[in-house]
Amino acid sequence: MTKGGMESVEVFPSEGKGRGLKALKEFLPGDVIFAEPAYAAVVFDSLTHLICHTCFKRQERLHRCGQCKFAYYCDRTCQRAAWLNHKNECSAIKRHGKVPTENIRLAARIMWKIEREGSGLSEGCLVSIDDLQNHVDSFGEEEKKELHADVESFLEFWPPQSQQFGLQYISHIFGVISCNGFTLSDQRGLQAVGVGIFPNLCQANHDCWPNCTVIFNNGKIELRALSKISPGDELTVSYVDFLNVSEERQKQLKKQYYFDCACEHCKKKIKDDVMLAVKEGESKPSAEMVKEAIQFSKDTLEKINKARMEGLYHEVVKLCRECLKKQEPVLGETNIYLLRILSIASEVLSYLQMFEEAADYAKRMVDGYQKIYHPNNAQLGMAVMRAGVTHWHAGLIEAGHGLICKAYATLLITHGPSHPITKDLEVMRVQTEMELRMFQQNEFVYYKMREAALKNQKIQVMPEPSNEASPSLFHKKE
Q1: What is the DSSP string of 398-410?
Q2: Could you tell me how far CA 460 lies from the centroid of its own chain?
Q3: What is the pLDDT of residues 125-168, one digit of tens each?
Q4: Dist CA 341 CA 292 (whole Å)
Q5: Which pTM value belongs to this model?
Q6: What single-letter DSSP state applies at residue 162?
Q7: In what order do the strands lie in the sheet with 205-206?
């Protein structure tokens, strides 16, 4: 069945996976297959005063709801647009006397929508909320305890005058949120800021080497083609980062999403050897040396996470340098443990404005990523962009411009030309192209002008390093 805006796809029975989505026409890399607004969505508890509750954009000054004093909006336009979904929440918060957690708020918004519209197919939805998988039967003891606590909290918050639902149905809704909650990012796609339910997106099955990607853009999620897709092809997305060996990805998928991944890359362990590469040649390390280097890397990553949480960035740099000395004689250039340290080192050194050393690590990181990731992977594109900006700040204009152009080409496919991060990148591409022309005409004049500019206007500080990974596709409650 297809409805408004979903004419190019259909739900079908996918062998061994339940339902799936398939294409009804041809798509080329970068094509938007569909754009879907949230069935219901909420801002994370920790960001409710920093993010607009309608468009999920981060803004300097937000307007607060005068009634519940909880919800924040960009302006009156966003506030008016939110009223249909917020009015019940607003009165419930006032009655309850406190704001419930994001899970309770999201469940309540779903229930209020069902109260208004029924639980059948909504406009533009290929499946109903009732038909979404909840995997409650697969929950472990700890998850069942959390579910029970959520249901109790929901019943305390839910107004007596609203439609009453049975415990089994409330549990189904929480199961749906747990398994199908999609992470919403801010306008630049750099920070996870909320969680929403998108019934059509939920039908796209996982593949570690997918043919589609998902981006949150202008208040909707977009399913975008990464490669050529023919009519009848199944549409797949990756629920986890590919930068892990197949066994670890399978463990993560089983734990978080309750299925055994049998994609081609997992079955054949494709690229596992690349991600666990060791030094080759006459001085090839022994198995014991490799084991020791990897354990040292794991221990160092734990110390790094602790130092980052405490804002001890010079300590992070020291730990990275020590770890790289241990890794470099043993691990290959594409080894994931080496790449993780290079990524952290380049990010933190950029923040500390030690750009030349950061650029060296960023280049090595990108060289490794390009041998692992799909060429149109969004995380690869973002990493290349970061490396390009770092080189640019280091005064390495030729390499910087080349990396920025490469990132722009990738993000045109993964994010599209209208996404704010792509627009930012286009401005950088034009600026670095102009500087590169100046550099090619006269290097001496270029560096003198750059030096003078930096004296008058200090280089903008890079964003403070975050201890969070890039926003993942689906939101899992910690």
Answers
A1: HHHHHHHHHHHHH
A2: 25
A3: 888 899 998 888 888 899 999 999 999 999 999 999 999 999 99
A4: 16
A5: 0.89
A6: S
A7: 9-14, 18-23, 234-237, 205-206
